[in-house]
Design goal:
By secondary structure, the chain is of the alpha+beta class. It folds into two domains: 46 residues; 83 residues, Immunoglobulins (Immunoglobulin-like, Sandwich). The protein is built from two helices and six strands. A three-stranded antiparallel beta sheet has the order 1-2-5, with no helix packed on it.
Length: 160
């Protein structure tokens, strides 16, 4: 507050102005201190959120680190519309797997990828069980490579 505001002619102001002016200043002081506290709280909340987010950002592998991998066995049959890759996928995990996404890559003689196709095994493959797959791959390649891209493990509900 500047001294110029306090040096007013008291006779020109209505009665009780000083009390009203002091009340107004008090309200503004509370608003300012509350906004400062709110800003401090928001800053703390933001810092906690950033720490939590950084902890989750590490992520990790979607695939369990047990060294297990799906067993893939396949053979290729060449046809006029492309190659058909037929095979089976085995589930090595202790729980069922579903929505297994397969990637088939057609390679040339030098090992470069010349064609790709993805497919999903849309059935639940029980632990230790196998599921068949058949994928049409357009184009022509010297050899093929099949790999699992993603999958979901079916975890038991409410188990202890």
């Amino acid at each position: 507050m500047t001294p110029a505001l306090l040096a007013l002619d008291h006779a020109a102001l209505p009665a009780g102005w000083a009390r009203n002016f002091a009340t107004t200043l008090s309200v503004w002081d509370r608003i300012a201190s509350n906004s400062t506290r709110t800003a401090d709280r928001l800053g703390i909340l933001f810092a906690l959120f950033a720490v939590a987010l950084a902890g989750c950002a590490g992520g990790g592998n979607v695939v369990p680190d047990s060294g297990r991998q799906f067993q893939l066995v396949w053979q290729v049959t060449k046809e006029t519309r492309g190659a058909i890759v037929r095979g089976q996928i085995g589930n090595p995990y202790a729980v069922p797997a579903r929505d297994i996404h397969l990637l088939v890559e057609g390679l040339d003689a030098g090992g470069s990828v010349v064609t790709t196709m993805t497919s999903v095994v849309r059935r639940i493959v029980l632990s230790g069980d196998r599921a068949p797959f058949e994928i049409l791959v357009p184009g022509d390649a010297s050899r093929y490579r099949v790999s699992v891209v993603t999958f979901d493990l079916v975890l038991p509900r409410g188990g202890r």
